[in-house]
Amino acid sequence: MAKGSEVLSQNQIDSLLSAIDSGSTTVQNMQEKGQTSDVRLYDFRHPSKFSREHSQTLLAVHEIFGRLLGTQLTTQMRLPVQMEVASVDQLTYDEFMRSITNPTVVMIYRLLPLEGTILFEFTPGTAISIIERLLGGPGRAGARPRELTDIEQTLMSNVFNKGMVSFKEAWKHILPNLEPVIQALETNPRFVQICASSDSVLVISYEMKLGESTGSMRICLPYPTIEPVLANMHRQFFMSGQLRKEELQPLSEEVKRTMEQVEVKVALLLGYTDITVRDLIGLQVGDVIQLGSQPADSLPLTVEQTCKFHARPGTLGRQMAAQITAIVDEG
To answer: What are its GO biological-process terms (predicted)?
Structure first.
């Protein structure tokens, strides 16, 4: 049957009528053929511009970014930081902005040489935990969310500008000459507009573990910004969402070099004893507390409050020292 604006000629009409008269076809058969045309539903409110392959490639890229950034933050904060991709969602920009709380922490970056911008969004608690740790605190957020002060915004910008080295590393196979440049840091989502409300965006959500605290981060990639490099997002370098082994080697070396610079607290526990509260209150300068260990005993040597070795106390030159006598079996 004719489709859309297609018009049958007189000869085609005569041929159809002759076929019906001869019994070689029927009107019902022609209607069924017309109904089996390839029709695909399309939701104009949620246009899918990122293909499945694009989403898988960007997922692999940002899994690498999460690992590298976690290692870099571990070095800066002197605190174990883990980052894992929790989800990848395709939304409209309006839907994404309506999901952001107020106050928030939004960092907008231009990805040169591309036109347009992307944004990184943190919950206030996550940003405050990072800042507090950098300033020597335990890295815990307050109970109530609040806006960052001007000094805190500067510190957060400095931390994440260093993190952009990891972003460049993760994107190097898609855009080798990528140069992220910070444009703004906002705490009120109403002042953030990086693309049209109806534009499609890909949102990568991370779960973060900052020592004993937890947090989250999201990256918003507008389709108009990264459209010029979508053609580069193929599986030449990615297989089943992972980099090939030869491509992972440099990243592994970079992670190893970074981890070797991480400082950890090592302590030798000389011993324990039990005393009464009365004795504790009466302690004065010069009093001696007898511990339960002997001078020749191997004592617990802890790394970040976890016993990893046993060692004997002593001196080396004019400094106190400990000689390792055994390694703790964690099996």
So the answer is: bacterial-type flagellum-dependent swarming motility; positive chemotaxis
